[in-house]
């Protein structure tokens, strides 16, 4: 089915309701240049093309009538313009005739003037030729005079004035010289003269390169020497400050503090060196237009010299030649710094930095290699000190020396390991040579060097001489070794990349005290040949050394420039202090073991005791008397050497061990039986030992210790055992109340084992002493009850 055609708007495309095209619309479209296609199409679709054609014809006629009206309006003006043009043409012909007449008159008058003008021109030409001849003569004369002056300057080696004169001749005179021969001669000779000047200054510069290399070493040595002097002055100031601080710590009255001004201005005159040949060569080459060429020549030659200076022969001793090596490099860069600041653009900062990077890399390589070969701490320290002075010197000139200082930091562990090795040998030798007797000081200077120098004194009052120190000779010797270690450690770490290096020194100091000194002392303590008196003295020495740790920390802080008030804090103390304190316990334990071993030797004599004597011993057992005599010699010695807490620990341990050994003697399998007389003898021994214990407790001052317990309490087990078998009713041991009160230290199994060995005395021995018939029964009852309880 076909769709219905769309209905057209009656007024669309300019059509009227009756289908005829509007004339105004057609005229408007034609005037505006619009497309008439839609109108024509609409006319044909409506079947009225004649009407459209008629309208177009009417439009043409309308336009033709407009053209005719326009021409009619402007016709009169056009005729008027033509008339005016004809009048102008007439005036032009009159003017032409007037000009021709004036020209003829001018020609007649000008002929006479032209003749006079020709004569004047000829005169002027003659004058000009004469003037030019005079000028040419003057120019040639001036040029010859300048040439003479150039020759004089060249003869006097005044190259810059000679160049300026030659430039003036080229610029101002050669273009004006009328003589071709003279001009050509000058054009040939001036380049030759310039080449002569360039060669002369180049030769002078080459000589300077040779001389400055030998001068550089002196410059470097003098500059490093100035840095060394400045460092010494700084150390003197620090020493005075440390002394003042020490006096302040000890509350010294009338202490005057003054600020001294020290002249720190360095004498730069010793660092002067001749750079005139460099300035001159650079300036002349700049004037010759060869500035870039000379700068490149200078840089390459100086780079070759630096590479030569940086080479170090493996056949040479670095320890002997390191100062020459580093001073040569220092002098080189001091000279380059002066040149870069004073010679203009001869060498740039970036080029100098490039040379420094080359030198720095090579110095680092050489230093690392040589440090790896060194096995002596002192050698490392000597080289390190000079390198630090080199860095301090070149840092003033703006060179980055951090990487070189980092090499020193990388080798600090090796240096301290070598230093620790040396200290270990020295300490071992000192301990091996010590007789472990108290040090006797007879002179004032000995007291100052061995006691006051390390703050080992118990009081600031000077003692009477001879003075018996509480330590042996190895203590001040070890303190001297530690003090030297601190000084060497600070010397190596000072003036490095770390400004605050106290913590590093403290770390190595702890390592020395813990891994070297403490281990050496423990090694001696663990020795199988160690005597009791030696063990006591070592323990006393360790007490003094532990107390001296505070002095070592303060001394290290003073050398590092750290205020002592920061070191006196408890948290800032050395870790070695607690380690040495712990080792004192090991020494006390070792001493106790040695004493116990000696006690065991005496207690072994119990094998020879008659455990069933007919009569009780009159004065106790003989072995026990010998034991008392031995303890009587050990306790006073320990009292003089050990502190109260250690003394109490040792004596208590020995007495407790004796008590245990007495009980063990009853339990010994070789003791098959014992009687009351043996118990009475053991009671006499215990009473004697308890009496000595009470005496030691009072005379040694142990009663002054807080919470101190009487030494006789250490013998409680043996005393309660003897009391049990001396009692008439041993079965009371089974009574919990009585046992807790009188026999709390006894073990039931031990009591059973010992009670089974008890035998009553025969009847014949009761003639003098009445017999207690119930005692044996009581003991038998005790044995039965104890067996039943198990």
Explain how this protein is built.
The protein has a two-stranded antiparallel sheet. The longest helix is centred in the N-terminal third of the chain and has 107 residues, at 49-155. 72% of the residues lie in helices and 1% in strands. The chain has helices at residues 23-31, 37-45, 49-155, 159-173, 180-249, 276-287, 291-310, 318-342, 349-373, 377-395, 402-410, 412-433, 444-450, 474-493, 502-525, 532-560, 564-567, 575-603, 622-641, 644-667, 676-699, 716-726, 736-742, 748-755, 773-789, and strands spanning 440-441, 467-468. Mean pLDDT is 81; it is low at 1-20, 250-270 and 763-771. It is an all-alpha fold and 790 residues long.
Attribute tags:
single chain; 790 residues; mainly alpha; 72% helix; cytoplasm; Exocyst complex component; exocytosis; coiled coil; EXOC6_Sec15_N
Helix-strand category: mainly alpha
The main β sheet shows up as: 2 strands, antiparallel
Mean pLDDT: 81
Indicate the percent of residues in helices. Answer: over 70%
Major β-sheet strand ordering: 1-2
Domain Exocyst complex subunit EXOC6/Sec15 C-terminal: 403-757
Pfam family, one: Sec15_C
Protein name: Exocyst complex component
Domain Exocyst complex component EXOC6/Sec15 N-terminal: 55-223
């Amino acid at each position: 089915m076909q769709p219905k055609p769309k209905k057209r708007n009656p007024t669309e495309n300019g059509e009227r309701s009756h289908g005829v095209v509007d004339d105004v619309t057609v005229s408007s479209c034609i005037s505006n240049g619009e497309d008439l296609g839609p109108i024509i199409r609409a006319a044909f679709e409506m079947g009225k093309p004649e009407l459209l054609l008629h309208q177009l014809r009417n439009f043409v006629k309308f336009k033709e009538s407009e053209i005719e009206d326009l021409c009619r309006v402007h016709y009169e003006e056009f005729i008027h313009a033509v008339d005016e043009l004809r009048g102008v043409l007439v005036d032009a012909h009159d003017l032409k005739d007037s000009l021709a007449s004036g020209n003829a008159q001018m020609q007649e008058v000008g002929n006479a003037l032209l003749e006079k003008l020709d004569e004047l021109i000829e005169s002027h030409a003659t004058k000009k030729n004469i003037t030019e001849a005079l000028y040419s003569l003057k120019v040639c004369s001036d040029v010859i005079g300048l040439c003479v002056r150039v020759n004089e300057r060249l003869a006097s080696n005044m190259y810059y004035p000679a160049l300026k004169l030659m430039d003036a001749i080229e610029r101002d005179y050669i273009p004006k010289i009328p003589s071709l021969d003279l001009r050509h001669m000058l054009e040939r000779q001036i380049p030759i003269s310039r080449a002569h000047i360039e060669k002369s200054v180049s030769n002078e510069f080459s000589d300077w390169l040779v001389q400055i290399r030998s001068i550089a070493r002196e410059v470097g040595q003098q500059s490093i020497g100035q840095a060394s002097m400045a460092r010494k002055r700084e150390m003197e100031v620090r020493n005075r400050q440390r002394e003042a601080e020490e006096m302040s710590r000890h509350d010294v009255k009338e202490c005057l503090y003054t600020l001294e001004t020290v002249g720190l201005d360095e004498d730069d005159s010793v660092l002067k060196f001749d750079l005139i040949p460099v300035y001159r060569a650079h300036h002349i080459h700049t004037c010759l237009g060869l500035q870039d060429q000379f700068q490149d020549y200078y840089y390459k030659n100086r780079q070759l010299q630096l590479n030569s200076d940086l080479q170090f022969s493996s056949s040479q001793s670095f320890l002997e030649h390191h100062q020459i090596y580093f001073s040569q490099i220092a002098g080189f860069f001091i000279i380059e710094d002066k040149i870069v600041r004073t010679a203009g653009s001869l060498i740039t900062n970036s080029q100098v930095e490039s040379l420094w990077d080359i030198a720095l890399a090579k110095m680092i390589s050489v230093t690392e290699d040589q440090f790896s070969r060194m096995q002596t701490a002192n050698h490392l320290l000597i080289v390190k000190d000079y390198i630090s002075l080199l860095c301090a010197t070149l840092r003033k000139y703006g060179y980055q020396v951090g990487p070189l200082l980092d090499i020193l930091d990388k080798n600090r562990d090796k240096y301290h390991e070598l230093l620790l090795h040396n200290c270990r040998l020295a300490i071992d030798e000192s301990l091996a040579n010590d007789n472990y007797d108290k040090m006797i000081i007879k002179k004032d200077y000995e007291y100052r060097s061995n006691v006051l120098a390390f703050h080992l004194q118990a009081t600031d009052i000077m003692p009477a001489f001879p003075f018996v120190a509480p330590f042996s000779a190895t203590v001040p010797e070890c303190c001297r070794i530690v003090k030297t270690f601190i000084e060497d450690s600070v010397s190596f770490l000072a003036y490095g990349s770390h400004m605050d290096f106290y913590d590093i020194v403290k770390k190595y100091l702890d390592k020395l005290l813990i891994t070297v000194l403490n281990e050496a002392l423990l090694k001696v303590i663990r020795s199988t040949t160690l005597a009791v008196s030696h063990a006591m003295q070592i323990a006393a020495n360790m007490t003094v050394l532990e107390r001296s740790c505070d002095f070592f920390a303060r001394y290290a802080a003073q050398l590092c420039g750290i205020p002592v008030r920061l070191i006196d804090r408890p948290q800032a103390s050395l870790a070695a202090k607690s380690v040495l304190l712990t080792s004192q316990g090991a020494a006390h334990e070792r001493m106790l073991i040695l004493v116990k071993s000696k006690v065991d030797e005496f207690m072994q004599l119990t094998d020879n005791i008659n455990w069933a004597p007919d009569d009780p011993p009159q004065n106790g057992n003989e072995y026990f008397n010998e034991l008392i005599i031995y303890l009587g010699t050990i306790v006073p010695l320990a009292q003089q050497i050990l502190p109260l807490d250690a003394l109490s620990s040792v004596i208590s341990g020995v007495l407790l061990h004796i008590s245990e050994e007495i009980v063990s003697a009853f339990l010994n399998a070789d003791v098959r039986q014992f009687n009351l007389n043996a118990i009475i003898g053991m009671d006499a021994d215990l009473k004697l030992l308890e009496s000595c214990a009470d005496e030691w407790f009072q005379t040694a001052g142990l009663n002054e210790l807080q919470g101190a317990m009487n030494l006789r309490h250490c013998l409680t087990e043996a005393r309660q055992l003897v009391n049990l078998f001396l009692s008439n009713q041993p079965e009371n041991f089974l009574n919990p109340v009585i046992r807790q009160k009188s026999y709390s230290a006894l073990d039931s199994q031990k009591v059973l084992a010992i009670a089974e060995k008890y035998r009553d005395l025969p009847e014949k021995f009761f003639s003098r002493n009445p017999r207690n018939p119930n005692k044996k029964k009581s003991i038998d009852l005790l044995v039965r009850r104890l067996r039943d309880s198990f």
